[in-house]
Amino acid sequence: MGINHSFYRDTWVEVDLDCIKENISRLKKRLKPETKLIAVVKANGYGHGALKIAETALCSGADYLAVAFMDEAIYLRENGIATPILVLGASRYSDVKKAVQYNVALTVFQLEWLRNAQPFLEGSSIKIHLKLDTGMGRIGVRSKKEILEIEEFLNENKNILLEGIFTHFATADELESEYLEKQINRFKELLAFFSTSPAMIHCSNSAASLLYPDLQFNAVRMGISMYGLTPSVEIESSLPYPLKEAFSLHTKVVQVKQLEKGDKVSYGATYEAAEEEWVGTLPIGYADGWLRKLTGQEVLVNGKRAPIIGRVCMDQCMIKLPGYIEPGAKVTLIGRQNSEVISVNDIAAKLETINYEVTCTISNRVPRIYRKGGMCIEVVNPLIQ
Ligand code: PMH
User: Fold this and answer.
1) Contact between 282 and 298 (Cβ < 8 Å)
2) Ligand 1 pocket at CB < 6 A
């Protein structure tokens, strides 16, 4: 794989594929040998880049991939991924032939959908996973009656193959486990209504996989922990092994200027220099997912912390420097410089959100650089192919 230098701005994400590999190996060691590991690479691999993460996950022992929508599955297929893929979200029944064409398994949660899909299949066969709603209240079959009707339909329509049954937990990332236990019990109750058992039964996300090894059934869905991010701050200290954060975000100072006392910075002129100050301009802004709420957030430059001052613009923002530095200095917005670290969780805290949202929000305009063995192995820039 050659290095493709096709990006023309000094702002980039680095994804350390060795971290992804290690996070997967550590989880795999805790699973029964027969348990299938489903790597969740929806939302462009939680912002890390679906294709490279899928490839790395498969090389590291993942058996199956999961995405949210069929478009994401087709993207992986079109880029050479041949492993089984499950679409976790809703698909149109009129699109089933596409799922067949790309050999993608679909999530089903309504009898009506199956009835409507059948004529569109024109006799071809498709794999489905039936989603049970045990308390998430999102998508899923909720009653015995629906299960019996769906089973009857599947018995009469052998071209629709029930490959899996699954559910999703609402609170596995909380220390209090009462609601989780309710969901587990409901899952087991609903499973008992099936007269056949499909190849795959799965319910665990990262939090459940890490904290409740008994819940693996015969597959687990690993999302956030594969990326080395904790499912919640609350359970961070209960994790069985340290997760390795793969994502970092960097830019370079494009201009360094000295302000006089009283000089203003950025839209609204909300920031005013209290004295003579050195200010650096960074080529990253809210259109990159570096949101306006990040005013005041610190970044790392030359191993030291520097705060963002004034409003974050669409493509740029400004930082207050400890003193003069050369333009071109590397700035780390998420990641490490020397002994200083700014984690995805730090940014999530500043944005009053969760780490999932931070990496997903860093937009396609920011190229992703992949590292392996400390070397840059590939650049992915969706803007310039
Ligand atoms: N399975 C389903 C159905 C999911 O929706 C998700 C994550 C996962 C597995 C992976 O969970 P993990 O990343 O905690 O391991 N879904 C979402 C979501 O819809 N919003 O945030 C995370």
Assistant:
1) no
2) 40, 88, 168, 205-207, 221-225, 231, 356
Supply the pTM of this predicted model.
0.97
Q: Count of domains in the chain?
A: 2
pLDDT tens profile 45-79:
999 999 999 999 999 999 999 999 999 999 999 99
pLDDT tens column, 320-372 = 999 999 999 999 999 999 999 999 999 999 999 999 999 999 999 999 999 99
115 in a structural domain = yes
Distance 372 CA to ligand 1 centre (A): 26
Catalytic residue among 42, 52, 252, 320: 42
268 backbone φψ class: left, alpha, beta (φ>0; ψ -120 to 50): left
Same domain, 90 and 192: yes
* 42 given a catalytic annotation: yes
Q: Measuring CA to CA, which residue among 19, 23, 66 is closest to residue 45?
A: 66
Q: Measure 245 CA to ligand 1 centroid, in angstroms.
A: 18
Contact call for residues 227 and 60 (beta carbons, < 8 A): no
Domain boundary among 163, 194, 226: 226
Q: Residue 385: pLDDT band by 50, 70, 90 thresholds?
A: confident
Nearest to 355 by CA among 42, 47, 12: 47
Give pLDDT, residue 1. 43
Look up the domain containing 80 and give its range: 31-226
Give me the catalytic one of 29, 144, 188, 267.
Answer: 267
